[in-house]
Fold each of these.
Amino acid sequence: MIYTKGKAGKVMNKTIITVVGKDQVGIIAKVCTYLAESKVNILDISQTIVSGYFNMMMVVDTNESPKEFAAVSAELEKLGEEIGVIIKAQREEIFNMMHRI
Amino acid sequence: MINFNEVMETNAMIEQENLDVRTITLGISLLDCIDSNLEELNRKIYEKITKTAEKLVSTGVEIEKDFGIPVVNKRISITPAALVGSAACKTKEDFVEIAKTLDRAAKTVGVNFIGGFSALVSKGMTKADRLLIESIPEALAVTERVCSSINVGSTKTGINMDAVKLLGEIVKDTAEHTKEKDSLGCAKLVIFCNAPDDNPFMAGAFHGVTEADAIINVGVSGPGVVKKALEKARGKDFETLCETIKKTAFKITRVGQLVAKEASKRMNIPFGIVDLSLAPTPAVGDSVAEILQEIGLEYPGAPGTTAALALLNDQVKKGGVMASSYVGGLSGAFIPVSEDQGMIDAVQAGCLTLEKLEAMTCVCSVGLDMIAIPGATSAATISGIIADEMAIGMINQKTTAVRLIPVIGKKVGDIVEFGGLLGYAPVMPVNEFSCEAFVNRGGRIPVPIHSFKN
């Protein structure tokens, strides 16, 4: 696993969250509220709308969260179903491996 | 930091283009289970497999969740059973007992296949080797998850034609034993030349004697991803085509490397190899045949197919080799018929014949794979087809394999359903001129001249 050091010298577990679906009011608010409640720190957000479809990627640190990664991932998926968008949480390594030598 | 487009590209590969890790295969040495008492041997085998593979399935599921990539199969390969059972097995029924034990162990740990009901007889057969081969029809009929493979030739030893003759009969007999299931037993039996010790793909996986006590091998897949990438290279020259395949193969293999390293770490079992194969499934968009079509063929089988497959296979290797620290297994493009919708279509369109498939096996990683032939095909003809394929492997210093299914009661043009990943297949015609006198000669074909490199 690839780790990067966080601010306090602690090992950071970076996770990529992607949200894809039909645009509507409050998607970011709902996702961010859940993350705040779960003590997941957001490091970066990028977001675009492509022909009415909402696309968001977040880089987050799950290190301070009391929840297991699998639980965060499952709860986000459920939240996505409630909002009507697809939310995925994946460890960053898969993207680093594929796109960086 | 990773950017938006890269994340979207990876996820599109997984969600729309069927990128997956085809298998995490745990190789387990059973050499330390050897015992002259059959009951004791079976007990030791069951214990070693269930203990070593205890966390295999759960680890696969964990990895799937963490990285959001499907890990389709979790499997086990073992030391060739002919070696493990040689001291204890006095009859072929004894070997059937070992097969049952393997099946039971596979069910306990929850893997869908266990490979290694095998014998390595490329130069000669021991008594145990022969008994194991003779037990195959029964063993594959009474078990569900056991896979068998026999290595009957190699570039270093020549071809054991006695074994080739025997296996023609065994393939027929296996078909007969499972005739009520469209001769499904034959889908679990592979005959090899130059079989690799670390192949993670079924039905030909076994844990070679050159391997460590336990090892993690991973097989990646992703013909859909290559096909999609090639859509952007339509009409472009061969340089662009080859570069596109190489880059895509690199990305696919990196995922395999990640999963292999993670599985190895989480299970505390050393990482063996990544097998960078393009393995199709019957799902639409997960087809090697569609890649060949995208390269510019109406159907696989058309003139140009062998060249197209050769370049595909070579570029996949070139791209994949740099992506993994250890590459092994079969590594290349698979061209099974029943497991690839595009191949099935090509057969049904009358474009793809057994002879063209044989030519294609000269330049890709495996051989005549998952091909249904008429049930009335003689054992000698099957042996002849095996011998041809083994000769291609021996002379070209590559792995070749035969997995033919003579479907009892079916004739050319009938459709056979195997179900699941094994798919369905139209029964293909076989050249019916006799090769009986050739097959009946007995003995072995000597090792080729280019093996004398010492």
Note: Helices of chain A lie at 27-37, 69-83, 93-99.
Amino acid sequence: MSTPYAKLPGWVEYGLVPLINLAVAFIVAGLVVLLVGENPFEAAYHLINGAFGRGEYIGFTLYYATTFIFTGLAVAVAFHCGLFNIGGEGQAYVGGIGVALACLWLDQTMPWYVVFPIAIVGSAFFGALWAFLPGWLQAKRGSHIVITTIMFNFIASSLMVYLLTRVLKPLGSMAPQTRTFAEGGQLPKLDWLLSIFGLNIGTAPFNISFLLALVAAFAVWVLIWRTKLGYEMRTMGHSPSAARYAGIRESRITVIAMMISGGLAGMMALNPIMGEQFRMQLDFVQGAGFVGIAVALMGRSHPGGIIPAAILFGVLYQGGAEIAFEMPSISRDMIVIIQGLVILFAGALENMFRPAITRVFAMRGQRAAAVVQTKGA
Amino acid sequence: MDFFHVLVVLLESTIRVSVPLVFAALAGLFTERAGVFDIGLEGKMLGAAFAAGAAAAVTQSVWIGLIAAILISVLLSLVHGYASITQRGNQIVSGVAINFIVAGSTVILGEAWFRQGGRTPALAEGARFQIVNFPGADAAREVPILGPIYADLLSGHFLLTYLAFAMVPISWWILYRMRFGLRLRAVGENPGAVDTAGISVIWLRYRAVICCGILCGFAGAYLSLAMTAGFVKGMTAGKGYIALAALIFAKWRPKNVMLACLLFGFLDALAIRLQGTPLPLVGQVPVQLMQALPYILTVILLAGFIGKAIPPKAGGVPYVKER
């Protein structure tokens, strides 16, 4: 896409512009709160208090953030390759099969540290599998990845309803879910990490998959900016024709990028399944795949931006529950609005304020140049 | 029940569930033919359904409900247009954003205004669309074969149903026989050429987006003013995406759009009908498979195994005038 905008300093590009976009999204969300007849500042207070007020709340915030780091990274990896993977939702859902199978198979005989690596591989495998077909169809048959991944979300949803109501459900049970896992299928909490800061985790399901998410974020950084594959992916994302002339095998890179993306989305399933519910339930993804889009856009597809963006959405999810509790007329659907506004302002309208910001910095630049000139003369 | 009777009932419900799909898919046809991809059909339909339900409940007038639906839907279209035409933002991202904003705000506003758990109040007779009965429909029902076809398939639908199917040839006429339509299609294939001819690409695309908004407004109004008496949260339930699938399945052509919508509507009606009943030869088909079938068919089509779906060439690409 042609961007006729002047280059801005790094801190403006990666700090100020996203912050302004985010601020506008929150101002509009505040207007919605006003429209409902509530005080937006009170809502903001409950949001912050609900997210950080106690060790337990922080635990929940970071638990949600864990999920969003995975899905955000998934969207970001595909973005770098010029692919828009809207299918994180379905990939995470199907990734759950890998986690559930590992747990159902080994939870009664093995400790968690044996089950966990197998579940990681399983979730990544199933997630990647669900992303493989759209990737392959894009690469070989030219089917639009956005449309195919949307379709695969719906297909995944039907498939999982089928599996959970017919196959994975224990005999004699009515609820569409697997049996509850024994100890081997339950991840240890990170209570020690919070207690370093003198916080009590309480009932929060903040678990070891958070550390895995951080490792994944680092791995994505290495992949994108420090490996040949990542370089090829970025080349393709910037200019497919340049990639073609450079002899990069487009279809191979497309499929690989999609599978990495799907694998990351699939690993998201570890957090709710092994970390919180200890069973696989219907709809356990709960829109996290879509939150990943907002997180990746906010974080500018860089792991260093994705982690804070994921924590921000963790705050919204956990604090939003507190708002819903304290102010009954604002239900948790408020988060969905904010999420949409963030996607709109940080994504589709990301350049709305750029001309003004560029002008401000151009003026400052001119003034500085003028100062240098007068000194020189 | 004999086979013929079952078939008539099935086809009748096919028509009923296809109407919003036809409206929404035609809406998508207008924007996508003009080179603006629209994932936000779902959101616009939902927003329109809510506006219709809310306005009709407050004013007790079905027409004000319909107008409110169209207004909100056009407004959302303009947001999409502003982001993707003027700001040259990513069209997919914008569509996704609109879907989320609407999904959240319909619930929040509905709860704040009506306090019925995200619903709007149930509409009385005057505040919703009534079934149109053709003259002599009841008398004709006794006539074998032709009677039920006349009485149940042709007669006995809502005004909007007839409008939806009338919109198919009308859309065709607009797109293929009017100057506006020719230009609209040209702007989706080669905006540079249209610009060279001295026609504003921006204004043309905005008009296409507005057409899309109007049609999505009808789709939403049908859901909350005709199909059910009032708005229920999340009532579009993926219909916007099915419409999108139907649009691609139809290869962006009006007549095919109608057929694709009827096919997907038929699958939907069949899935409800077949729940729990085994079929000859194949045994019991899981209802989930039937639900997923439209999506699976679309993927197979996109893969190029049933013909080839070639989207408008300039679809998804913002137009930059310079050079």
Note: Residues 3-305 of chain B form a domain with the ABC transporter involved in vitamin B12 uptake, BtuC fold (CATH 1.10.3470).
